[in-house]
Amino acid sequence: MSSNTEPITLLNAEGIYSANKALPLDVDAVDATALYRDMVMARRVDTEAIALQRQGELGLWPSLLGQEAAQVGAAHALKPRDVVFPTYREHGVAWCRGVNPVDLLGLFRGTTLGGWDPAANNFNLYTLVIGAQTLHGIGYAMGIVRDGDVGTGDPARDRAVLVFLGDGALSEGETNEAFVWAAAQNLPVVFFCQNNQWAISAPYSVQSKVSVAQRAQGFGFAGVRVDGNDAFACLAATEEALAAARAGKGPTLIEALTYRRNPHTTSDDDGRYRSGAENDAWAALDPIDRLRTYLTSNGQLEEAILEQISGQEKSLAEQLRSGCRALPNPGPASPFQNTYAELPWELEQQMNEHLEFVEAGE
Amino acid sequence: MSATSTRMPLAHALNLGLRHAMEADDKVMLLGEDIGQLGGVFRVTDGLQKSFGDHRVVDSPLGEAGIAGSAIGLAMAGYRPVCEIQFDGFVFPAMNQIITQLAKFHHRSEGTISVPVVIRIPVGGGIGAIEHHSESPEAYFAHTAGLKVVSPSTPQEAYDMMGLAIRSDDPVIFLEPKRSYWLKGDVDSGNSPEELQKATVVRDGQDLTLVAYGALMPVALKAAEVCQSEGRNIEVIDLRSLSPIDDKTLIESVERTGRMVVAHEASRTAGLGAEVAARVQDAAFHSLLSPVIRVTGYDTPYPPSRLEEDWLPGLDRILDGIDRSFTY
Ligand SMILES: Cc1ncc(C[n+]2csc(CCOP(=O)(O)OP(=O)(O)O)c2C)c(N)n1
After folding, report:
1. Which of B106, B133, B264, B286 is flagged as catalytic?
2. Residue B298's closest chain A neighbor by CA?
3. How far, CA to CA in Å, does A141 sit from each of A158, A161, A217?
4. How far apart are CA B303 and CA B177, in angstroms?
5. How is residue B313 annotated by DSSP?
6. Hey, is B82 helix, strand or coil?
7. Segment B225-234, tens digit of pLDDT
8. Which chain A residues have a beta carbon less than 8 Å from that of B70?
9. pTM score, two decimals?
10. Dihedrals φ, ψ of A157, to 5°?
11. How far apart are alpha carbons B326 and B328 in whole angstroms?
């Protein structure tokens, strides 16, 4: 696989598919309509969340605008028993994993520090400390190996870990430790780096002289660089890497080269550090438009399907709006009850003191 | 107000303090994530890269160990680096460098090496932020010998303490109460500031000593006002230096008032309040009319923001603590 070269594109900006020997894909087996639907829905989650933030319903929202192909493409390569370790921006992956999109809002609304059961969909909680999840993925992968769930050849049994990270996260020591472990122990882990080219205001050049994919070589595993606005390339690369991981062939680092078209979060002002022209250039490479053109020109996107998707979008929007406002405020005792598995007596005293104080204030 | 005095928010006072320190000494330089063109997420370094160039205001890679560790090396090379950690919850990847290296170099080198590094960290809650953006990590640092830990509470203090911290030959952990970044006050840049390790009596009183620092200072002053209307005369002390602690000022005060309440946002167990209480009880036991009372955050992780208003020690809980002191 290539590493510091041009990213591999299978579906180009004009929506035309061409096969590439470096990254095989059985295009006829791909449910492109499902990819399209999930990308549209991921974008809708994002748009609605931004609107909710503007209405004061959320404190903050990290937008994924422009990263839908990377997330949905990667997510479609997952099997149910694979386990995902996300950052805080993987709303599209969460959607594909079956996490209730309303549950994504709690962390940003301030009603919870989690929001969903990680085991229910094999999709872990969002991680706000950059890079920390990379090592959790390593440990989980070690567990999978010890459980004997790698390289059995039984597709119902073999499984792998998919860790998401940003390009900025590559600079954290912990990420580099994760790479060392993954290589040294030949772990069933795939690192999927969405290189959206900015870590808040720091361009990629602040983090690295070489491409993300090329960095894998130094650690001793494969790196592959794909067009992150191309859902087919993201899917193909992740499928191949996950298959290798499940088969016991060790880790891969995938670089999906893309662009964050919105500010880093709703609190950020990207006018201070980058140009509108750059943004426009990437808007012209929009991943959803690209796949729609492909589907339309192949006659796969009939009016009925489009209507169905737009109906689903509308009900998703409604679900997010009403669901957000209905997210329950945590009870005043909850921080105390959830600090330890067993409530220490001293904390119980603090809890009672606190509850008395809260009641008196009401 | 003197001729050099201007009204500004605390964040601007910090910016001015940095600017003046950089003008005064060309060995002063800044390191941190997003501190250049963006001016830091709180804009504390706004405009400094433009004025001093990207050799002196360095947008670092995204790695806190890298920021703190390279600052140590820069200090050894004769520079005076001032690091910005973007948020309190993100200082922990740098803890190895801060605790095992930064704090110990002077001691290990038998005094031959100084590491005049300042590590600036926005701290504390009350701004409705998400997880890891409202922490109070001061006790970790105060527990580590070799570090100075300080926290200003007004724009004037922010300006003065920044200059003092940068001129200090010891490493300084500089905790910026982020809730107070927008708090306005007069800043006299021609002031000759008090030493860094000094607590200040910001309000005189005879009946009880209330100790706080950082973002809780305005709340403490408000509490003193409320008590005044009820006929209790509260002395308020801004601790300013969390390590070393200026016990002299605390003890003198409690010897006069006989009572003490100490308030902080950080969790109670092994927090600064415990240290203050222990010192005062040790040195002024016979002057005390009641035990030193702590009003603090609870021993839980910082809660989701919808709960923070009640979780944080606010006016009512401080007044409650004062009332409790008077039940003895
Ligand atoms: C350890 C740590 N340091 C700093 C931050 C503050 N911060 C939040 S997001 C971010 C940039 C992340 O960039 P990248 O890894 O490229 O991911 P992206 O947000 O672009 O998806 C920074 C510096 C943090 N969350 N954690």
Report:
1. B133
2. A350
3. 12, 6, 20
4. 18
5. -
6. strand
7. 999 999 999 9
8. none
9. 0.96
10. -110, -45
11. 5
